Amino acid sequence: MGKNYVDIEDDQGRTLRYRKHVNGRGLIANGAKVHASALVEAGAYIEPGAQIAAGAHIGRGVWVEPDAVIGQNAEIAPHAHIGSGAAIGSGAKIGVRAVVGAGARVAGGSLIGDDSQIADGEKVATDQRGLRLAA
Length: 135
Description:
0% of the residues lie in helices and 34% in strands.
């Protein structure tokens, strides 16, 4: 049986340790909180301070930056990028290769399409079809 962690050096020369999540084998940094029922697929990275709630599904190749919060039963499709301090509401769906900027907020139940860009600090709410709702 192989080891259950990986050490990676960041741009500042610090070594960060990531453990492999039991449910999906994605990499979880020390200091991140991921519920045991969340699925974090192999190739996904969850950075320190990030929080992943129960039932969330984090796809292959997703990068969740520090202090981001992913709500209960949210789905983050493969290769999406969730910026530092961003919040994804419960039941929201983020599409393939979508980018959610730092400090952005996606309302619960929203649908963000493939290749979408949410700007830093932007607040987004959509209906079930992905059409944006008035603020």
